[in-house]
Amino acid sequence: MIEASNLTKRYPGGLEAVRDVSFRIEAGQMVLITGHSGAGKTTLVKLVSTIERPTAGSLVVNGQNLTALRRSAMPHVRRHFGLVFQDQKLLFDRCALDNVLLPLQIAGLQRREAVRRAQAALDKVGLLAREKANPIALSGGEQQRLAIARAVVNRPTVLIADEPTGNLDSESAAEILEIFADFHRVGVTVVVATHDQTWIERYHPNVLRLDHGRVVA
Ligand SMILES: Nc1ncnc2c1ncn2[C@@H]1O[C@H](COP(=O)(O)OP(=O)(O)OP(=O)(O)O)[C@@H](O)[C@H]1O
Q: What average pLDDT does the segment 44-68 reach?
């Protein structure tokens, strides 16, 4: 469960990108964050995923108040989150499999188990046959799917994405939506910032609409 109470983020310079935002996301829910460009979607995603700290308000995830935690405790908490950003930050000097292996190596898994899990993650996103490919040789949609495999390989309880279909054609965007829907179906909490009308129509009751940093619907 994710509970945000009166979250506010003021950037240096004074701009309040997120203002007094409160919501509750139950475990296993799919929730979309939408709104015009500059409404604060990315900032809210960064707050929920603990990349940014709020200026005011609190964020409780699975009963733990993250705003009260020391910075040193954050890496541990972040393991609950799988993050997918529009700019996927893939490593272009390594093959697809090695990109997905990286979080497991950081977590200290044995090589054999790590490879097994990374291949299972690639299989879930339909990329197992491309495990040896360099990301540069993959299409935009495939690169996004690779980023999803990397995000889920540590089995996060919450999958958070910022405009995951932003740069994709409608066919690739539909594939990405189905992958997120599959994770939602097996009980993963999914939070996605998106403009994509297909998603918004499908998950209509669970849409948080922002306008100038405030929740308006
Ligand atoms: N690091 C930062 N420092 C200062 N201002 C920022 C920073 N990041 C974002 N902003 C400002 O905060 C506001 C909200 O930005 P944010 O990126 O959260 O919006 P968004 O809804 O995700 O927009 P878009 O759909 O265009 O990505 C904007 O006015 C933006 O310029």
A: 92
62 close to 156: Cβ distance less than 8 angstroms: no
**In a domain? residue 108:** no
Q: CA 101, CA 1: separation in Å to the nearest integer? A: 28
How many domains is the chain partitioned into structurally?
1
Let me know if residue 38 belongs to a domain.
Answer: yes
User: Candidates 7, 43, 45: which one to mutate for ligand 1, based on the most atoms within 8 Å of Cβ?
Assistant: 43
Q: What Rg, from alpha-carbon coordinates, does the chain have? A: 17
Do the beta carbons of residue 136 and residue 142 sit within 8 Å?
Answer: no
- Kindly state whether residue 145 falls inside one of the protein's structural domains: no
Classified as helix, coil or strand, 67 is helix
Q: What is the CATH number of the domain that holds 210?
A: 3.40.50.300
Measured between alpha carbons, how far is residue 207 from residues 3, 109, 135, 194 in Å?
15, 37, 32, 10
Domain assignment of residue 69, given as a range: 1-79+196-217
Residue 8 CA, ligand 1 centroid: distance in Å: 13
Residues lining ligand 1, Cβ inside 6 A: 11, 13, 15, 17, 35, 37-43
The pLDDT, as a whole number, for residue 203 is: 87
Closest ligand 1 atom to residue 46 Cα is: 18
> In 58-169, where does DSSP find H-type helix?
74-78, 96-106, 111-124, 140-152
User: When comparing pLDDT for 145 and 89, which is higher?
Assistant: 145
In a domain, 62, yes or no: yes
